[in-house]
Amino acid sequence: MSAVAVEYVFKSSAAGEGEVVVRAERAALFPETSSTAHHDETGHVAWQAMPVLCEFLLSSRGRQLLTSARVLELGAGIGIPGLLAGRVCTELIITDSNDAVVERLKRNVELNMGEMNCSGDAIRVENLVWGAGLFPSNLAHSVDIVLGSDVIYSASSAKSFLETAEAAMVQPGGIIVLAYIPRWPNVDRALYDSIAVMKLSAEVVPLCSFMSKKTSNGHALPKGTCLLLLRRMQDVVDPTEVCIDPPEITRRQYNDDVREVFDVCIGPVNITGDLCDRLLSGIDLDCEGKQQICLVIDATGPFSLTTGKARLLSEVFRVPPLINCTELKLKDCWLSDGWAILTPGLLDCANKLSGLIADGDEIGVTAAKEINKLLLHCSDLKFLGLLRNPLGNDGAIAITRGLSSCSMLNSLILSHCRIGDAGTAAIARAFPPTLQELDLSNNEISAIGVADIANAIRDSVLSKLTILNLSGNDIGASGGAELGEVLGVCVPKLQQLDLRGCGMTSSGITWLSRAIPACEYLRVLHLGSNGAGDEAMNELAPAISRCKNLKYLSLAMNSITGEGTWVLVEDLVNCLSITHIDMKGNSLGDDGAAAIADILAEVKTLEVVDLSNNEIGEEGAIAFAEEFEKPIMEERFSWPRGLALLLENNPEIVGAARSRLEKAVEDKNPQIVIKVKLSSVTAMETGFGR
């Protein structure tokens, strides 16, 4: 693996320090595509959390921890945090589990040996595999500080990292310093649970206390990025008092200049006894109380809205400013049955709530019953979203009485909630007639549940619907037929229909197609991943041609070949509004590419055509090149907004055909912006990883 020499420059916040430079060797190219579960190559580059850990180590508090300490870095990669620690600590062990990474680490130590406080036998580089049972006995309980940055990337790695770190820490007094970037909620939860299981105390060090800018390599750090100090519970006598990142408060104003709205974003760490005072200091209340509060409680990362925090929050909803809360969103708070504690306080502002979202909140039946109580008092609620919650059928049934009482509700989102046919039937009977958006995607709904939704549509309960999303439910051909009977007739204002991944097959799409022409306002149609073949195009193509407002059509990840593509394009030329066509992941081949190329100039409204991963080869590339080479296209001036043609993951587009296509694009009239995206032939260089 080729390498480059780099310098990482940090500004130390410690007194008397200026810039600190660490020299290192890293991989020249980003190795993520070559890395596997059995051969992890990701340690050859720096990752996004590394600067967070480094800036903490350079702070006054970080230096205080490192002074005279024995330090171990786990999963060190190219070792920048460890190399910084070595300038202060008395003993340093830098480790990784990849032999090639360990060799690179040794070279990086040599590059920085002149700046090290420790030397000789006091600094070692070793190969170390994680796991309490695998930890070498000679290192057990021997270090004061364990460092880690971007080392927790799966649920299992959370447990193995903490087990290894705990086995290494001295007793008492050891500290784990962990810089963590949240990427997947299940990993956040695994880290949170592992900390609890291992009886560790977690101190969250506010980033504002040691970082001047919350950025990494020029990019904003993701929400939930944190620096944790983990200690054994028995080692914590008096919790350290630290500053807290203030609530994020932004002001916006209605067009009529009568009301002001304050967007307030807080995390669990902000929910303390003085929350009201801190909010009031950022919100200039008037005596008439015209301000409205949109509150987001975002616990992204290894954090939770505990029952104690929920009790505090319940109390502050009863007094200004949160008694004026009009929108509430909880994200990854894992409150679960703690809704029983939160709901009593929310009841005091329930009649003002226009929006309620609980995303990833572990809401089951018990919590659903509490939310039902709240909904009964939400007379002005317009938006209800319960996303990524284990509601199930019983939880869905539990909210129906409250749901039916929301006479102003415009939008209902219950996606990823494990709702089956029984829950769908109950919800369908509770639909308010005001609904304009319905999202029941990624549940466990079959054609039986769709039949209940169709019955609600027949009864004109959903006559105002403009957005319907049932994607990710295995409704089959029968579900497609049920929707085909009612959509065009009973939902006249439908604008967006998403039925991706519904297993409708060609038969179901054929039935559905009969309703499409009557949906005169339809703008977005998603029919990807349905196992549809060429025969579906016989009904779908003429139906689409009669949709005068259709802009976005997705038929991705089906089984359409060149034959079906020719059928589609014959009618597609009559769709005068289409801007996006997504057919990636089919089997169009060169014949299908030729069909698309044949009508490109005629469909002047096109902006994006995605034909990635379609077995297109040199003949297909030449077909596009020939169309772009025609001088008549310049005169007719197609695609006034430009055209993006995506041909990625078609590895047979090579050689002279690829060069001809690229040249045809480059030589076009500058007034016609054409972009063709092909698979890269070289790997991209890397600075920090994701």
Strand arrangement across the biggest beta sheet: 12-13-14-15-16-17-18-19-20-21-22-23-24-25-26-27
Query: Unreliable runs, pLDDT <50, ≥5 residues?
Result: 681-687
State the distance separating the first and last CA atoms.
20 Å
> Rg to the nearest angstrom?
29 Å
**What about the largest sheet?**
16 strands, mixed
Based on secondary structure, the structural category is alpha/beta
What does this structure look like?
- The model is unreliable at 681-687 (pLDDT under 50).
- The strands form 4 sheets. Strands 12-13-14-15-16-17-18-19-20-21-22-23-24-25-26-27 form a 16-stranded mixed sheet. It has a 7-stranded mixed sheet with strand order 5-4-3-6-7-11-8, with helices on both faces.
- The chain has 690 residues and is an alpha/beta fold.
- A hairpin with a 7-residue loop joins strand 1 (3-11) and strand 2 (19-27).
Features:
single chain; 690 residues; alpha/beta; 16-stranded mixed β-sheet; seven-stranded mixed β-sheet; 22 helices; 27 strands; 19% strand
Topology (SSEs and partners):
Elements: E1 3-11, E2 19-27, H1 50-58, H2 60-66, E3 70-73, H3 80-85, E4 91-96, H4 99-111, E5 123-127, E6 145-149, H5 155-168, E7 175-180, H6 185-197, E8 200-205, E9 215-216, E10 219-220, E11 226-232, E12 248-253, E13 260-266, H7 275-282, E14 292-298, H8 307-316, E15 325-331, H9 339-346, E16 355-359, H10 365-375, E17 383-387, H11 392-398, H12 400-404, E18 411-413, H13 421-430, E19 437-439, H14 447-458, E20 467-469, H15 476-490, E21 496-498, H16 505-513, E22 524-526, H17 537-545, E23 552-554, H18 562-572, E24 580-582, H19 589-599, E25 608-610, H20 618-629, H21 632-636, E26 643-647, H22 655-666, E27 674-678
Parallel strand pairs: 3-4, 3-6, 4-5, 6-7, 13-14, 14-15, 15-16, 16-17, 17-18, 18-19, 19-20, 20-21, 21-22, 22-23, 23-24, 24-25, 25-26, 26-27
Antiparallel strand pairs: 1-2, 7-11, 8-11, 9-10, 12-13
